[in-house]
Amino acid sequence: MKTTRLPEFDPAADEMQAGRIYSLALADGKVVPVSRSEAFLCDVHDHIQLRHPAKLAVLSRLQDYPNISALLDASAVLAELSGRRLRIREWLGEGFHIFGAFKVGLRLARHARALGLDVKGFLDNDPAKQGQLLEGLAIDLPTSTMLENSVVVVASGRHGNAISRQLRQVPGIRLVNMHEFLYALDGPGPGLGNEKFSSFVEAPLLEPWRFISAFLRLDDEASRKVYDALIGMRTRLSIASAQQVMSPWSEEYFDRAFVQPGHAARFVDAGAASGDTLHRLEANFGPVEQAWLFEPELPAYYEALRSVSDRPNVWVFNMGLDEAPSRTTYQPELSYDIAGELSSHVPASITSYIQGVPLDAVVQGKVGLFKLDIEGMEAAALRGARAVISRDRPTLAVCAYHRSDDFWRLMDEVSAIRSDYRIGIRLYADILEDITLYFY
Predict the structure, then answer these.
(1) Is the pLDDT of residue 376 over 50?
(2) Contact present, 138 and 105 (Cβ < 8 Å)
(3) Which residue of 91, 125, 131, 200 has the smallest Cβ count within 10 Å?
(4) Distance (Å, rounded) from C-alpha 348 to C-alpha 379?
(5) How many CB atoms lie within 10 A of CB 45?
(6) Cα torsion through 85, 91, 95, 100, rounded to 10
(7) Are domains 88-198 and 248-439 of this chain identical in fold?
(8) How far is CA 287 from the centre of its chain?
């Protein structure tokens, strides 16, 4: 096969011409193809793209971001993942306990039992749960269970690293984190679609140029550190990577590096649940001038409506957001209430008939902050808000963990509407959930 020799580029001496692909030597000696272009990330296939020459300074020190840099040697990482999968499968085949008798643990237990694996029971540090049953499985304190040489799956969204440190004191124990579990057993991804967790793990390794180019769109160093850790969590099946970059959960959607009080005063909440996000917003920034809450699931919608029933400036819609008017049914388990926390007069078993609407067709007043956490519908909802985003340039807080391509696809969606947003990213859990892209 004939290969084309790319012209070498010297950042100290040369000016990068738009649209031309160069060969660039990085500080660690690696050589990569790179171009300067305004093209969308979906069009990036065989080189690194940057939109401004100033990002060359970040690219030149790619070795400072070890998980991003490792994407340049994807075959080695894929081989390591293959061996890890086989080892974890063997461990799980022996039977195991699940540490965490709540949402995450319940999800993992259901998946394991559907595969015929032996779940020995739940472990939890909460004394109030001692002796209770969760779906027929006993809940025990770890101190009352013989765990030497056993296999324990750590199932917690915000305390997984602390639990791992606690359990490492047990002789011979073999710990499996949530990412290892889902990858080994070909489990579902965090969204409601059909993607497997393996897609989230392998996508950056199969499309390294696209993910590295998305990394170079980020505009603050903290975001670059978060993105590097997230790539490590995906490609290395790590949860430890989260420890140095995780932000407090109370700041989710509202990080003050990106969201100002003036933005929060006029708030659109897509995926409002029971209204808790609005209440957290107001605890951070004070009462809103106007809020539009969209929640398609009936029990949650009624709870949100009840919580703001005396507030004429808060409008609650039993709708989802979409690119165009749509209707569907949603069977019956609530996407976010797997553990039955929500107390509602509407039974959780009811079928929700969901109407999707474009934000542009509903909201006419000025919008300052637009938050989207809608189980993989974020891209469609952004397209349905084109007029609002073009007119008001609201700060956007967009969940980026429901689809394996969210890290770059959502950047494309927003830049197709307005190209003048800066971009940041934050993590609010120690698993691959509660990840927010900010456009500000």
Answers:
(1) yes
(2) no
(3) 131
(4) 27
(5) 9
(6) -70
(7) yes
(8) 28
Reported CATH class of domain 88-198: alpha beta
Report domain extents, the chain: 88-198, 248-439
Query: Quick check: pTM over 0.90?
Result: yes
What is the C-alpha separation between 270 and 382, in angstroms, rounded? 11
The tokens for 51 are 């939109």
- The burial of 420, by beta-carbon neighbours within 10 Å (0-12 exposed, 13-18 middle, 19 or more buried), is given as exposed
Amino acid 13: pLDDT:
57
Tokens 């429901």 appear where? 402
- pLDDT given for residue 342 in this prediction: 56
Query: Which is the CATH superfamily of the domain at 248-439?
Result: Vaccinia Virus protein VP39 (3.40.50.150)
**3-42 residues labelled b (16+ CB within 10 A) or e (exposed):** eeebeebeeeeeebeeeebbebebeeeeebebbbbeeebe
pLDDT of residue 339: 57
CA-wise closest residue to 320 among 311, 312, 329: 329
Rounded Cα distance between 220 and 217, Å, is 10
| Contact between 146 and 54 (Cβ < 8 Å) | no
Residues pairing with 188 in the sheet? 196
C-alpha span between 338 and 192 (Å, rounded) = 13
pLDDT tens digits for range 422-436: 999 999 999 999 999
Show the tokens assigned to 264: 């929060």
